[in-house]
Amino acid sequence: MTTSPTSEKKELVLKGVAASPGIAIGTAYLFVKETPRADERALASDEEVAVEDERLDRAVLKSVKELTKILAFAQQKVGDAKARILEAQIMVLEDPVLLTSMHKRIKKERKNAEYIVSEEIGKYARLMLAAHDEYMHERAHDVEDLRNRIVRNLQQEKLTSKFDGSMIVIAHTLTPADTMVLSRNHVLGYATDMGGVTSHAALFSRSLKIPAIVGLGDATRSLANGDQLIIDGYGGTLIVHPTTERLAEFEAKRQRFLAFEANLSQLRDLPAETADGHRIELSANIELSEELEYVVVQGSQGVGLYRTESLLIGRDDFPSEDEQYEEYKRVVDRIYPHRVIMRTFDVGGDKLAPETAEEANPFLGWRGIRVSLDRPDLFLSQLRAMLRASSRKNLAIMFPMVSSLPELKKAKAFLRQAKAELKAKKIKFDDHLEVGVMIEVPAAALNAGALAAEVDFLSIGSNDLIQYLMAVDRGNSLVARLYDEFDPAVLATIKHVINAGQKQKAWVGICGEMGGHPLAAPLLLGMGIDELSVVPVVLPEIKKIVRTLRFSDMQKVARDVLTLSTGDEVRAYLRKVIKKACPDIPLDDTVRG
Question: Which pTM value belongs to this model?
């Protein structure tokens, strides 16, 4: 929907974070959702306590019914896998432990239901917000939304989420339920003050193919209903009161990107091979087996990172060996004959898991392989399940957060033990499956040669590696600007890891967000990377870049880049390279993760 600019209003450009690619041109709809008050009120009699108990039960039941309706709608729109987000919220509401706890507190403390709900559910949100992890912060907002839904139903308040016409939704924040409910209207785009690229609302936006920007700060204060807007979901820019020239510029850009994306579908069955015949492996990162169909449609050559922690969603214990085996087998069977790299549980520290520890600094704490080595029973169960699922010989195992050679050797010893136990039971498996290690810790990067000598492959987890190298929590808005995948120190480290792997005859891949960045692709290619594992949505675009370039040219590009002094210099240089070789590639800071 294109509208005419209002001449008396000055154009305003707001910068946020690109959360879902695309360009939308339209008018603003401000979605206002006040946080309901949950004032404390004392109960004077047993009769009042009984009334509050009944009010709580009715409000929870109504909340479950609301979310069940939204869940059914979400399953139709985005599929069962992504709709599980809402299913998990329903499971929380139906948790008998939580409900019993709230009822007990009403009786014991003789306080009203709103106050108890706010306190009891709020403590879980506060725990998540205390974690040093952007993902956990986003989950905290989901929990807060559950609390607010129950309180709103206790107070019999209703939200307005219907509008006429085609609109760009502007909000302070959007929950997964908000995103789905609003999508029943004709939504052109989403823009929010808060949120990050890992938010469930951002995930739904990408699934619905609706352009979105998050992290705008206080954009809602600068806007009014009916304001003319442009959302650039590639560059993370929101333009208010655009000029006639700006409207024409972005309409042309929108049409160019639509044509570009349409052409990408022709590459699905072609290999990731450069114009001069150098081939790399281009695979996908996944969390849920339900994503496999989309991975296949996007033309992936396999799965470069399967996050097995998805099996822990919505449970308070670890899955059994048989449960894991069934899930792993489903994944490898669907991707066959291509390879699936399964990462052992990357839990602990700042990541929620059935078992966690209170830690002052979870980033440097009990997580990844450290948890597995300290819990041999859980580790062996997972390794046996993976081995049992490997009989088609297209499964590889990868260990996360390894920081030293002794850790890797211990992990391999457990793998040998798991193999011996299966052999004793005459259970078939691939005795020669590939074993790899993630390079996420600077110590592992520096010692990559010794680690590579022990494994078949190294996989660079760029997200954590960059955070540790730069001492920057990218989920912390105060310092997130310092997180830079193109910083020369980061690039020198990655090149060192690639060289170390090649020297030890171990192939090297990258499975962090950097691998799916269009500017990084030619650089990584020239550095000698063997595999890129990216989120499925960007896979055709990266394949297009690889197939357009010449490997010999990119080797020179890599040599030149490694002489530059700043990340900005690197980006400017790579932008020229891509623009010359692939003029139709979108080069804004498109969301990659």
Answer: 0.67
